Amino acid sequence: MKSNSQNSTFVDMINVVATRELVDPDLAKHLAAVEALLRAEKDNDRPFLTVLLRTQGRRLEPLKDALLCLAAQTQQDFEVIVLEHDAAPDDAERVKEVVARLEPGFAQRVSLVEVEGGLRAKPLNVGIQAANGQYVAVFDDDDLLFANWVEEFHHASIGAEGRMLRAVVANQSVSPEVWPQDHDGFRTSSWPKAEFPTTFNQLNHLVVNHSPFMSWAFPRSLFFTFGLRFDEELTVCEDWDMILRGSLLCGVTEVPALTSIYRRWQDGGASSYSAHSLESWKASEQRVIDRINNGPIMLPAGAMYQLRDLLIFTEALNGYRFLFKGHRLRQPLGLAWEMMSPAVSLAVRARNRVRRLRAR
Amino acid sequence: MSEPRSLSVQSVLYGNAAEHIMTAGSAISHSVGLARAEGLVGDWALVLGDCSPTQVFTDDSIAPLRSVIESHGGRLEYVVFGENLGSAAGHNALAKRSDSDMMLILNPDAQVSPDALSVLARGLTSDVGIVEARQVPFEHPKEYEKHTGNTSWASTACALTSRTIFNRVGGFDSDTFFLYCDDVDYSWQLRLAGYRVVYEPAATVFHDKRLTIDGDWPASPAEVYYSAEAAILIAHKYSRPDLVKKTIQQFRKQGDPAVLKAIAEYESRKLDDRLPTPVDANHKVGAFIKGNYAVHRF
After folding, report:
1. Which residue of A5, A263, B6, B98 lies most exposed, with the fewest beta carbons within 10 A?
2. Gap between the Cα atoms of B222 and B258, Å rounded
């Protein structure tokens, strides 16, 4: 579907009901009013984008990189809110200095907000409250943007009212290092690899997050019409939680461009992966899953076939349940299955494709 | 305390958008302004050499940029070359128009960070020939020594060099190099003369390079041609006839029109006796490693 004909999933759902031939006219009228309310949200006086930039002031050089990437965007219709979260006093001072040294033309669109206490989501909600943009994006202080990050979001937003926008991200390994002149720096040690999926799959994202935070631009309506906020109880996965709740409500428009680099810290470089325990990750994931599971969800057009394929495959696997002990294949069948399973998977996909082609 | 060193920032333009030059000019002015406030830079100028078929600026359209430069205590010079001199000859020509202590060779559309000039100026000590800034978002993969920053060569996307040393080694070899490897050669000339070539990651410059959606780096036919031509010529100049032969064989096998054209250019120069005299016979500085001019980290 072309981006200029896309509604949010919620509006699509309203339209499906409101345009039924025998729908109660009163219901249709009220649904039309809801749709009108959602469409009235857009305000061209607002900047296109608000960028929420979280930092704890522990990595000044990556923070400077992040700000340079923003200053160099080809589309400059955005504001930046630097959210300094629980930084140590010296680090907070240094963050202030970094912001104070920005080029004045850019600096006038950058604000610095100090946030105390709370977990990873708290600064995001503070930022949301202060955001003026038609869209909101989150860009953490150790990642990188290509020059077209905002421009591609802007382009994709045309005709994709109320939808989340998703661009493609590469990842790159870095590790801490002291640079010449005694700067606390880092060493980049891999090419940017385009390992995250180039297209969005709603069902796959229910299993695990395949899209780093800066892949996304969230429409303002998600926060100020639908009233969503980041879950401040989560120790991690606050991004996945919002991505899931938002995408199920709004739908997703693809941005067919690689526009940013997610830095993976290695060799002692702290990240959310190393700073939180496995238990913390599991508990957060469970909380995200439970919240989605405890309510109804809307899936985008096309999900029906994918769900059917999954269920058919699961049913077929169930026929071979005797091969399993617990959740593991019995030996030596396990080895044989490991060798065969990719081929089986391919065969199932091929079969399904043939079926779909025949059905057209 | 000694007088702050004077600076000339020089860029060679070719068909760039005026607004990109304006943005880059604002960034460099700001960065120089901060370095001046720290006493690291004295008098300074931005010198633009326009090689474009149609000049990028008119007297009127360049006025806002001039105003920005002057508001930071600098001077703007805009030179229209009227022909495409290429990077090496363009920078040599611009270098002659100034007598500043330091020269920043800068891509015309590259946007420096606020700290870039201060860090580079501090890094340009008497034993250093050139100091290179780290490019963002796509960092160059060449290896550098921890703590010292010593490296094989410096990219002139954004690099600071000393005029005295520049003159001592004869500037860029514009007779041999047009667009690529002029910086590799300049770096190696500096190292042959006993100077260090330093990578300074804390100085950053945004260079608008992009990847395809699959993470590939697309190269235009012109980039393929000029880099192929430069690859053969630099192997010749640094006394590696074996590599010249091997590279030509590989290019012939590859069969791409752009690389075949590069071979033809090399052979034409050879026939006309226009090849440079080989140097570095003992391979003291010339590094040819898997098609690169340094060990690469990735």
Report:
1. A5
2. 7
Per-residue model confidence (pLDDT) at position A42:
64
- Give per-residue pLDDT as tens, B70-114: 999 999 999 999 999 999 999 999 999 999 999 999 999 899 999
Assess B30–A contact: CB distance below 8 Å, yes or no: yes
Which has the higher per-residue pLDDT, A277 or B261? B261
Q: Chain B: give the shortest CA distance to residue A295, in Å.
A: 35
Question: What is the Rg, in whole angstroms, of the alpha carbon atoms belonging to chain A?
Answer: 23
- Give A279's Cβ-side CA count (13 Å radius): 0
Of A1-5, A57-61, A96-100, A220-224, give the lowest mean pLDDT range. Answer: A1-5
CB contact under 8 A, A144 and B210: no
Q: Residue B26 above 50 pLDDT?
A: yes
C-alpha A216/C-alpha A212 separation (Å) is 8
Q: Which two tokens stand for residue B172?
A: 């860029």
Enumerate the residues of chain B whose CB falls inside 8 A of the CB of residue A200. none
Q: For chain B, how big is the Rg over CA atoms in Å?
A: 19
- Nearest-angstrom CA–CA distance, B121 and B40: 6
Say if the Cβ atoms of B213 and A64 lie within 8 Å.
Answer: no
The count of other CB atoms within 10 Å of the CB of residue B99 is 9
pLDDT reported for residue A5: 66
- Residue B119's alpha-carbon distances to A188, A205, B261, in angstroms, are 19, 43, 41
pTM of the complete model: 0.92
Helices (H), A72-215: 89-100, 104-107, 121-130, 149-157, 202-207
